[in-house]
Amino acid sequence: MALVNRTITDFSEVLASEAPAPGGGSTAALSGALGASLILMVTSLTIGKEKYAAHETLMREAAENVETMRQNLLSLIDRDTEAFDAVSAVFKMPKNTDEEKKERSAAMQAALKACTLTPFEVIECSLAVLEQAEKMCGKYNTNAASDLGVAALSLKTATEGAWLNMLINLDGIKDEEFVTTYRQNGEKLMSKATALADKIYHEIEKQLLPRS
Length: 212
Description:
The chain is mainly α. The protein has helices spanning 8-16, 24-46, 56-90, 98-136, 145-170, 176-208. 78% of the residues lie in helices and 0% in strands. The longest helix has 39 residues, at 98-136. It is elongated.
C-alpha cells in the first residue's frame, strides 16, 4: 500500500520500525505537504470574506498554485521511499566477477542520484509554497495567523530535512559535476526557503505577541 494511503497511525508505526524506509526523506516531504495544506486552509478561510474582498484574486491564485505543490509533495513521500528501495536492491546484486562489480557500481551511482533528486524536488516545492505564503502576508484572515505560522515552520522542516537527505546521498556519488551542481543549487534554494520561512514566522509572532 502506498504510504500516502495509510492512516497517520500506520505511517508512524512503520516509521518507528527497524525498516530503513520510509525515513527522513519521506518525513520531510510529508512536512511540506502538511505545510501546504495549512496554507490552503488559510486561503479557504479568507476567500469569500467581505473584509478581505480586495485580496480575493490573490488568494484564489495562491490556492491554485499551492494545491499543485501539495500534490507534488504528497507524491514525493512515496517517491523518496521508492528511490531508497532502489539503493537497497543494489546490495542484493551479485559481485562475483569484475563485470558484475562494474554493473553493481553503476547501479548504485544511478540509485544515489535518484535519491538526491527527490529531496531536491521537496526543497523546490517547499520554496514555491513559501513564496505564495509571503504574497499572502497582511492580506489573509488574521484569525488563521497561527496556522500560517505553523505552515512556515512545517515548510522549513521539510526544506532542511530534504537538504540533509541530499547531502548524505551526494557523499557517495562519484560524478563531481553532478555533486557540485546539486550541492550548490540545493544550498541556494534551501537558504532562500529557510530565510523566507523565518521571515513569515517572525512577522506572525510579532503580530500575536501582546503589545507593551
